[in-house]
């Protein structure tokens, strides 16, 4: 896989993870906690795929292959870090909605 392919894999999997994390929030808001948990799991899988490509890219640099630092690479890394942050926040939202919905059902 060449340099550009790796960059696009980071963008692809990061974007998928971000979308799934946002979907998890929407599902939790609508009381579909099982769906929310599944979306978070799938977001984690997408982030794992992205991390796999990122790690391979980093290992090449460690081995002496200096990558070309481009705006596209910077964008991919930014995209991935944003997805990771949103996934972490989505986990918190899902947990929060779980407590909110449980409280409403208990009449609190």
TrEMBL record:
Pfam families according to UniProt: PTS_IIA
Record SUPFAM superfamilies: Enzyme IIa from lactose specific PTS, IIa-lac (SSF46973)
Alphabetized PROSITE patterns for the sequence: PTS_EIIA_TYPE_3 (PS51095)
Keywords from the UniProt entry: Magnesium, Metal-binding, Phosphotransferase system, Sugar transport, Transferase, Transport
GO biological process terms, semicolon-separated: phosphoenolpyruvate-dependent sugar phosphotransferase system
Cofactor binding, per record: Binds 1 Mg(2+) ion per trimer.
Cofactor needs: Mg(2+)
Modified residues (Phosphohistidine): 75
GO molecular function: metal ion binding; transferase activity
Binding site for Mg(2+): 78
Designated name of the protein: PTS lactose/cellobiose transporter subunit IIA
Alphabetized InterPro entries for the sequence: PTS_IIA_lac/cel, PTS_IIA_lac/cel_sf
Organism lineage: Bacteria, Bacillati, Bacillota, Bacilli, Bacillales
Superkingdom of origin organism: Bacteria
Species in which this protein is naturally found: Brevibacillus gelatini
């Amino acid at each position: 896989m060449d340099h550009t392919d790796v960059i696009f894999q980071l963008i692809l999997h990061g974007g998928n993870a971000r979308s799934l994390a946002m979907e998890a929030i929407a599902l939790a808001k609508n009381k579909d906690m099982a769906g929310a948990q599944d979306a978070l799991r799938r977001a984690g899988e997408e982030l794992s795929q992205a991390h796999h490509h990122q790690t391979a890219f980093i290992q090449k640099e460690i081995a002496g292959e200096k990558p070309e630092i481009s705006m596209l690479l910077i964008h991919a890394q930014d995209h991935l870090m944003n997805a990771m942050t949103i996934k972490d926040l989505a986990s918190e939202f899902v947990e929060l909605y779980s407590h909110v919905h449980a409280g409403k059902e208990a009449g609190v």
